[in-house]
Structures are given as C-alpha cells and as structure tokens.
Design a protein that fits this description.
heterodimer, A: mainly beta, five-stranded antiparallel beta sheet, four-stranded antiparallel beta sheet, 1 helix, 12 strands, globular, B: alpha+beta, five-stranded mixed beta sheet, 43% helix, elongated, disordered N terminus
Chain lengths: 173, 563
C-alpha cells in the first residue's frame, strides 16, 4: 500500500510538468560520447503551426550534424568555437553553432528534430548543458531559451531551454 | 516468505502505476495560452458588458475567478467553459470606475496559468482597497503615543537642566516615559509602514512595511525620537549639554516627519519646524514636572523660573507656527474651504485655550500661590493639568493632518523612475504616475555591450502579489526615439507592484530585469513626497543571478511646504 502511495505521489509531482515544453527524448548522456539529440515539439505557438525550428548548439558540443527530415529543409550556421577542441586527433576551432529546420508542423501534431554531436570533456560531469530552441510560427515565436540560475528550480521557468545532463564517462576496463 | 511476497506485490503495484502513467495520451499535455478577452484589456467602456469572454488556445478549467470592484469590494465570478475559453457572467454593477478580474485557470496538463483583466467603466479610477483607511487610525494613534512619551521624557530632562531639580515623582515619570518611548516608537514605525502600504496588520509579520517605513525620513525620525527619550531618561540628564542634545534630537525627529521636511521651501520650513517642535517639547514636556514641584518647598520659585523660560518658548512657538503657515502660501479662502484649514483652525483654538490658561497661571494663580498657598495650589494643579491635556490634543490634531492634504498639494501626478540593471544591460523605467490609475510606461535601455542593443523584443509584466493581482503582461512597442513604450496600462491598486522586464537581446538570449516599486500610499492623495524607496532585485536569466541590490527610485518633489 505504501508503495502505491509513494509511487502515486512521486508520479504526481514529477511527471506532468515536463510534457508541455520542448525536451530531449534522452535528457542525459555520458561525457565524451557522441550524443543523438532528439527534440520533441508538442504544439505550435498558441494554436498556430510551427514554420521554423532553430536550435542553438552550446560551446563544448562539437562535430554536430543534423538528421535530415522529409518535408523540411535544414540550414547549418557555423561559427568559431570559444576554444579549440580535439576531435580524434584533429584540432577543431569552428563548427556548427545553430541548426535551422524550415517546414510546417500543425499544432495538432507532434514531431521530432534530431542531430548528433560529440560531448567534449569541457562539459563538466554533473552539470546540465542547455540547447536554447526558438520555435517560429506565422504569428510570432515561442522561445524555449530560459536557463535556470544556480539553485533555481527549472520547473519555475515559463519557457525553459531543453537541457542535457552530463554523466560520468563509463569506466574503462 | 511473507516479506518476499509483499515486496513482489509492491513491485507489481509500481509497474502498474508506471504503465498507467505511460499510457496517458501526451497530446493533451500542452499549456493553454491566453489569447485575448472581450472586453479587451485596459478598455474604457461606456456601459458595463453583459458578459466577459476569456479566450485560450485550448479548453481550460477555472481555478479562481475574482472581481475587484470599483467600490473596493470583491466578488466571485461564475463561468461557463467553452471550447476556446471561458464565458463569464457580467460583473456586479458597482458604478463607474476600474474593474479587475483576477483569473487563474488550469489546462489539460495540470499547469495553472493566471492573469488579470483590467477594464474601466466611464473613468479609470483604480479600485479602492477596502481596509486601506483602517491602517490610518492605528498609525496616527501609535505615532501620537510615541511622540507624547518622547516629549515627556525630553521635557523632564530639560526641566531638570533649566528650571530646577525634579521631584522623585517627576523623575520616575520621566524615566517611565523614556522607557515607554522605545516600544511605542517601534509600534509607530510598523503602523506607519502599514499605513504607507495601505495594508492590514497581518502584513506586520512580513519585512515589507518595516523596509518601507525605515526608508523614509519619518521612519527614522521615530528612531531618533526614541534615542532622544532614552538619552533623556539616563542618569546624566541634569547636564545642560545633554539636555540640549536631547532637545535637538527630539525636535529633529519631529521636523523630519512633517510636511515641512520637503518641498521647495524646505530650507526655511525645516528649521522653523525644528524651533516649533523644540518650543512645544519644552512647554508641554515641562508641565508634568512643574505640577510635581508644586507640592514641594520651592514650588513658587519653580513656577517663576518656568514662566521666565516658557514665555520666550511660547513666542517662538507662535512665531514659527505663523511662519510655517505663511510659507505654505495658500490664500485664506482656499484655506478656510479645505479640511486642512479646518484642522488648522481647531489646532489654533486649542493653542489659544492653552495660552489663556498659561496667562491665567502667570497673572492670577502664581501671585495667589504666594498669598493663599492651599487653594491656589489645587487651582494651579487643575489648570496645569488642563494645559497638558490641551497640549496633547494639539499634538493629536497635528497628527491628523495626515488625513487631509494641505491646499495647493493637488499637483499633477509625479512620475516614478526606476533604474534596473544586470551585468550587461541597464534599463531606465519611467512611469507617468504612481499607481493606481492609467499609466504610461517607457523604458530606455543602455548597456556596455553594443551587440545586445537595441533589444529585439521587450515584455513588461506587472503583478501585485499582496492583492493577488496579475501577472499582467504587455509587449512594449519600439518608438523612433529608441524608447520602448507601453500604455496606458491600468494598474488598479497602489501596490507595491513587482515589475519584470523580459528583454530579448538575441534570438537565443533573454535577460530578465526585476524590480519592486512601492509608491507611498499617499502619493495618490497629495501631501507626502520623498525619495520613494524602491527595493530593486535584479536577476538575469542567462545563468547568473544577483539579488538584493537596493537602489532608489527618485520621485520629484511636490510643491509643498510645512504646516
């Protein structure tokens, strides 16, 4: 009985809040791995269809490539990284800073937008790295760009940016 | 085995619950968004709408629907759900003025959203807050008692220094007054904070009224007065230097708090008020020790000495009083017509009675004390007691000037200026007037980083958490001058209002500036003005947060001087 109550309480407190926002399907990954980021867009801007999805790639995530999407064109914005990263022996000083998908997604539908990138070891274990997303519609934009300050509960934010928690790398045997 | 069985049962229960939750359709789990209303926000209507429609992006359920009506009452609204929002019955007809509908609804994902719809019928008034004036009377009485105890404590010290030794009874009275002055000053400070905010006594347990009260001259005037009383009550009070010090402290505590402490004539008004207060303290505060000394041996002597000092004191009192009335600069006709003038007349009548009694004491009763000590002593006692009572009444009347603005104080509303900043961007916010009312807000951004300027979008959100109003959100328009503007927006209460400015500086970066503006309650009424205390908390949502930077919002002084 206690288990039921505890489970209910835990679920009641934790689950519903996360659904409405733009989120990663897998919100955590190990440091040093190549991560497949899948962002879910659950609704348009106040009922209007989504026409553009823009994702900002944070520093420390390199070698980013978008997954092409039928019916959508994808544009890659590159720029200089804040520092030079080692990518399997090759120094990388510039790369993808932003991904822009253009197409149309009705408010009634859900869709996913995917990319992959390497999580360098400059992303500290235990921290959360944020990928601000702008969802543009004919009537304006929904900006999922709020990043919680230290100690702030991300649930308190109106429009939080999707976050990816960096886990410790797997132990080498 | 049984333990194992119950654990297995528990695991199954857990799995079952996970399954249930996982199958809840996720399409329904989006936030509802407010899309508009009829009547529209800030509308000025000729007649009350027959119904109110709130429109959302999806069906919502009502959590709270509450009317704040022009007459200060509150009422609940009933609503019918429609596919695109809520349909509310007409607001209770309570005449012309500003109507506020506080709404809070929940969408299918369980996420509540709230806001306020403000519109006005006929004219924009702002809702009057019930209970606002309930805070006035306690504030006046608390201030009266605090000042009276200070006057008695300081008066006893002055008497000891200038007139003669205190009888043991008078010394005890002085000490009690000094001890009472401290708690009374604290009570008065809290009551004054509540009065400034127009809040009920329950707000005393929060820090806001205290912060507001201590930030203005009258607030720390209470503490200066308490300090004067404590020093006066200490043992070393017979020394003239100490007596002078407490007189100066006591008089300043009164001078910083009156109408004379501001306005364009304050450099004349404040010294005049200080002399006025010093004379009052000596006169009224010296009377209790004088009564006590009558029963002793040196009664006649003490009377003569007191009278010698009291005469110049009374002259100073009257002269400074006339001076203070003159620099107000109101003509007699408006003075007589105003409530302020009536209070002044009442005060003058009381002072005239005091002067008459003083004259009686000096010319008739004092000589009689030499010839017929017994009967004259009791007459004198009665007469001086009446003088003390009249003095206290004069003080009480002076406190009541709080209730009514002096003539000439009804000037145009003063703008409020706020300065909010984060590490990268600063905002100068100007509000065309203090709330309540319809207010234009303009924001000018400055910053060190040219990449962030000008901002792409600016959104202002107001809420009055104490009254439960808001958030009321507006997108600002960029003017050709580079200024961002909204307005007029109706802020229906005097506040304190919290203001959040969301500044979109790049497509992916938003900086939020936050501040609380606390216009003094009486800014709407007229006579009080000072640098409005603004507790400004700033917060930046790009990963850094800093708080508790206290800045000041400057309020322009009104044309206003002493009474």
């Amino acid at each position: 009985m206690n288990t039921i109550l505890t489970t209910l309480a835990v679920l009641a407190l934790s689950v519903p809040a996360a659904f409405a926002h733009v989120n990663f399907e897998t919100p955590q990954a190990q440091q040093g791995t190549t991560y497949l980021g899948v962002l879910g867009i659950g609704h348009g801007c106040a009922g209007e269809p989504t026409l553009k999805v823009r994702v900002q790639i944070p520093d420390g995530v390199i070698a980013v490539k978008p997954v092409p999407k039928a019916g959508w064109s994808v544009e890659i914005v590159t720029g200089a990284y804040a520092q030079s990263y080692d990518y399997y022996g090759t120094p990388m000083t510039e790369g993808v800073k932003e991904l822009i998908w253009t197409g149309e997604l009705s408010d009634a539908y859900f869709d996913q937008f995917a990319f992959r990138g390497k999580l360098t070891d400059t992303l500290a274990v235990g921290t959360t790295v944020y990928f601000p997303v702008v969802q543009e519609c004919a009537n304006g934009a929904d900006r999922w760009i709020e990043i919680p300050a230290d100690g702030q509960d991300p649930h308190d934010l109106e429009d939080p940016a999707p976050g990816l928690k960096i886990l410790a790398p797997a132990a080498k045997n | 085995m049984r333990i194992l069985a119950s654990n297995v049962q528990g695991v199954f229960c857990f799995l079952f619950m996970v399954l249930v939750v996982a199958t809840v359709p996720s399409s329904a789990l989006a936030h509802a968004e407010f899309q508009g209303s009829a009547p529209v926000a800030n509308a000025l209507l000729d007649e009350l709408p027959t119904g109110v429609r709130l429109q959302f992006s999806e069906p919502v359920g009502a959590l709270t629907l509450e009317w704040l009506l022009p007459d200060g009452t509150r009422g609940t609204a009933t609503a019918k759900a429609t596919p695109d929002g809520l349909l509310l019955s007409a607001p209770p007809a309570t005449g012309r003025g500003t109507y506020v509908l506080n709404w809070r609804v929940v969408s299918a994902d369980g996420h509540p959203i709230g806001g306020a719809l403000v519109f006005s019928l006929g004219e924009v008034t702002g809702t009057t807050e019930p209970g606002t004036d309930a805070a006035v009377l306690p504030a006046i009485i608390a201030r009266f008692l605090a000042i009276l105890s200070m006057i008695f404590a300081v008066g006893a010290a002055l008497y000891a220094a200038l007139i003669g030794p205190l009888s043991s009874g008078a010394a005890r009275f002085g000490r009690v007054a000094a001890l009472a002055a401290v708690p009374l000053a604290l009570v008065a400070l809290g009551a004054y904070g509540l009065d400034l905010l127009g809040r009920g006594s329950s707000a005393l347990f929060s820090s806001v009224p205290w912060q507001v009260a201590i930030a203005v001259p009258r607030g720390w005037g209470f503490l200066v007065g308490a300090a004067a009383a404590i020093i006066a009550g200490s043992r070393s009070r017979q020394r003239p230097a100490i007596a002078l010090l407490v007189l100066v402290l006591g008089a300043s505590s009164l001078a910083v708090s009156g109408h004379s402490s501001t306005g364009q004539n304050r450099w004349i008004g404040q010294p005049l008020m200080m002399l006025h207060a010093a004379a009052l303290i000596f006169w009224v505060g010296g009377l209790p020790p004088l009564i006590a000394s009558l029963s002793g041996q040196g009664g006649l002597n003490a009377l003569r000495r007191f009278s010698n000092v009291a005469l110049p004191a009374v002259i100073v009192l009257v002269a400074t009083g006339v001076g203070l009335a003159l620099i107000r600069g109101a003509d007699i006709a408006t003075l007589i017509a105003s409530d302020w003038g009536k209070l002044l007349a009442l005060k003058l009548v009381l002072v005239a009675c005091m002067l008459a009694l003083a004259l009686l004491n000096k010319t008739r009763l004092t000589p009689a004390l030499a010839t017929a000590p017994g009967s004259a002593r009791s007459s004198l006692r009665r007469s001086i007691s009446a003088e003390i009572a009249l003095g206290a009444m004069v003080l009480l009347v002076a406190m009541c000037f709080r209730l009514t603005p002096p003539p000439g104080a009804h000037t145009a509303p003063d703008p409020i200026h706020l300065h909010l900043h984060s590490a990268e961007i600063a905002a100068e916010v100007s509000l065309s007037a203090a709330p309540p009312g319809a207010i234009d807000v303009s924001v000018n951004f400055m910053g060190t980083n040219a990449d962030l300027l000008p901002p792409k979008e600016v959104n202002l959100t107001f809420s009055d958490p104490a009254a439960g109003i808001g958030p009321i959100s507006f997108d600002a328009q960029l003017l050709d001058s580079g200024m961002w503007q909204i307005g007029p927006v109706t802020l229906p209460t005097a506040g304190p209002w919290s203001l959040n400015i969301a500044v979109l500086v790049t497509d992916f970066k938003q900086i939020t500036l936050s501040g609380i503006f606390t216009p003094p309650k009486r800014a709407a009424r007229g006579p009080f003005e000072f640098i409005a205390p603004c507790l400004v908390i700033w917060r930046q949502r790009d990963g850094h947060e800093q708080e508790n930077l206290v800045l000041k919002g400057a309020r322009a002084g009104r044309r206003d001087a002493g009474y």
